[in-house]
Amino acid sequence: MNDRAQALAAQLIRNFHEAELTTFKREPLYESRYARLARGTAARKLGASYDIVEPGKTTCPYHLHHAQEEMFIVLEGAGTLRVAGERLPIKAGDVIFIPAGPDYPHHIINTSDAPIKYLSISTMEQPEICVYPDSNKFMAEAGIGGDRPFEALRKVGEGDLDYWHDEP
């Protein structure tokens, strides 16, 4: 490839099979390996990650977004989509659509005996309010890029909280 083609490829193309994985673990429920795919690309309103979740684990607390829509594409394995108070079985080949709003709190749990691998895609709308129904918290964030500002997390009637406060 010429220099221009190489520069375009660097801004527009990511291969999740080749992406460097980061390991995250917080006992007892949270454990994954992931790669944030959109960082460093030309994308400004799309987020994407590749997630591998071990049996019995999840990546994040049960939550909902008031601005962002999300889509999950299950590549390998099986598990459970906890959504809107229900538990739905999911498997390789499933494409999951989560609209913004209070009707769709969600997270994916690996309820199988093998890793589940999926792509997470979101619209990265800002400003965003996330609500965590299990712990009665919310997080407000504004601005594009960087990591989520966990210091902006609040619980009804309380001040600043750690992101994991009251989560299992």
TrEMBL record:
The keyword Metal-binding applies. Keywords: Metal-binding. It comes from the Bacteria. One of its GO terms (molecular function) is metal ion binding. Residues 52-121 form the Cupin type-2 domain. This is Auxin-binding protein. It comes from Roseateles chitinivorans.
